[in-house]
Amino acid sequence: YPCTYPGCTKSFSRPCHRQSHERSHENSRPFVCPECKRAFCRKHDMIRHQRIHSKERPYQCKICKRKFARGDALVRH
Questions:
Q1: Across the chain, how many H-helices and E-strands are there?
Q2: What gap in Å lies between CA 1 and CA 58, rounded to an integer?
Q3: What's the whole-number mean pLDDT along residues 64-70?
Q4: pLDDT at position 4 over 90
Q5: In the 3-class helix/strand/coil scheme, how is the chain assigned residue by residue?
Q6: What's the first-to-final CA gap in the chain, in angstroms?
Q7: Is 0.85 surpassed by the pTM of this model?
Q8: Mean pLDDT of 14-33
Q9: Is residue 52 very low, low, confident or very high in pLDDT (cuts 50, 70, 90)?
Q10: Three-state secondary structure call for residue 40
Q11: Which of 21, 39, 51, 63 is most buried per CB count within 10 Å?
């Protein structure tokens, strides 16, 4: 599924991935956090962001027991 944006040569294995990519060209951000009104191109980015407001920290270091809202933050730790 090739990007339909003029001049872009990217293509994707799924139409939903292409759609998400094309939003970046249009600066379309249809997913809005109900708490702070910050907007996102992708739904999963908004859901990840919402952990800031809920204080949910599901990722825990097995060594020191520190908790993180995001898995990538635990990996960096």
A1: 3, 4
A2: 35
A3: 94
A4: yes
A5: CECCCCCCCCECCCHHHHHHHHHHHHCCCCEECCCCCCEECCHHHHHHHHHHHHCCCCEECCCCCCEECCHHHHHHC
A6: 37
A7: no
A8: 90
A9: confident
A10: strand
A11: 21
Strand ranges inside 1-77, DSSP E: 31-32, 39-40, 59-60, 67-68
Task: Say whether pLDDT at 34 is over 90.
Answer: yes
Written as six digits, the tokens of 58 are 């599901």
Q: Tell the residue number behind the tokens 């003029």, with chain if given.
A: 6
Sign of CA dihedral 40, 43, 47, 48: negative
Total length of the chain: 77
Domains of the chain: 29-76 (3.30.160.60)
For 34, the token pair is 């109900």
* Side chain identity, residue 38: R
